[in-house]
Amino acid sequence: MMPARERPPTSALNVHQVFHEGQKSWSCCKDVNKPVLTFDDFMAIPGCATGKHTQQVQESAPPPPAVKTAAAPTVTKSANGTETYSTKPGQTATAASPKLVATAAPKELAKPVPLEIEEDDPDAKVEKGAKCKRNGCNVVYEDEETHRKEGGKEATCVFHPAPPIFHEGSKGYMCCKRRVLEFDEFLKITGCTTGKHLFVGKPKGPEEELVQCRIDHYQTPTTVQVSVFAKKADKEKSEVVISDDSVELDLFLPDRKRFTKTIKLFGPVKADESAYTILGTKVELKLVKTDARSWNMLEQPREGTPVPEGFNITFGVGGRTGSIGAKEVILDEGNQLKRNGSGVKA
């Protein structure tokens, strides 16, 4: 009897998951199995090797010790010829410290909207062996009494209602605080919400297929640039509605496919000054901020969920190639004044 085909354990073969620019794949077979965009498709990629099951867990190597470097001393000479030395980082030994200028506190951001949780139709027929579609729940349907009837033995679903986050090696879910580094540990993160299982989901119409499209973004001090990678969107039928606090996308794609999404923006924008363009390979949006504050992310997190530490949209630069390798540096008002005051031209 041939052994079951399985994914090579990461601890034994040093195989890693590859997450790059929204695409997901396995390093052991990325040339055979093409990278996919959605997390569900990634989890469905078949294994590329066979072998025995193992419970061995690979221990991560400790990070190298940080090397502290001493700050170079700065020398300041006064009018009478006295030299003063200082080694404090970010400070110079001057007789008088610069005065702090008070700035107006930014307006508070709008409260995040509660996350809508999809529910199965009570009359929907569920096939035996169907798997729960919720993040973090791997329950397989057996019968009505066990998994759907209120009070059933396994009728309670423990799941994550928000999508996963993969940021600088850290893995977790938008709906809760826990973050891990290893992919195996990410799969074991216990759900933070309880409810009913979702075995069927919303039915898709016979003429249209709802699909997901990758969304990338970066920001400058005055705008947020958004790219929706929807190929060959119908310019006549597709709609993009930009309001002060949200963006509604309804894009009609070839082969009777459709992408719909409402983005609750992290901060307010000027709808009358913002614009969008439908291109052959994507839809570009230029959202004009109402102020120069930095956005931590494009969408508002679920109500009560803190923003992950260090999770920020990077300020971009302008030029021929966009945010990489451009020639013109974009600075906020404070840094622009510092640069102009030092005599360096922007």
From TrEMBL:
Bias (Polar residues): 80-95
Coiled-coil boundaries: none
Domain CHORD: 1-53, 132-197
Keyword entries, A-Z: Metal-binding, Repeat, Zinc
GO molecular function, one term: metal ion binding
Start and end residues of each stretch annotated as Disordered: 54-98
Ranges annotated as biased composition (Low complexity): 67-79
Domain of life: Eukaryota
Alphabetical list of InterPro entries matching this protein: CHORD_dom (IPR007051), CHRD1 (IPR039790), CS_dom (IPR007052), HSP20-like_chaperone (IPR008978)
Residue ranges occupied by any CS domain in the UniProt entry: 210-299
Family annotation (SUPFAM superfamilies): HSP20-like chaperones
Keyword field contains Repeat: yes
Signal peptide: none
PANTHER family tied to this protein: CHPADIPLOID STATE MAINTENANCE PROTEIN CHPA, CYSTEINE AND HISTIDINE-RICH DOMAIN-CONTAINING PROTEIN 1
Name of protein: Chord-domain-containing protein
Organism: Calocera viscosa (strain TUFC12733)
Lineage: Eukaryota, Fungi, Dikarya, Basidiomycota, Agaricomycotina
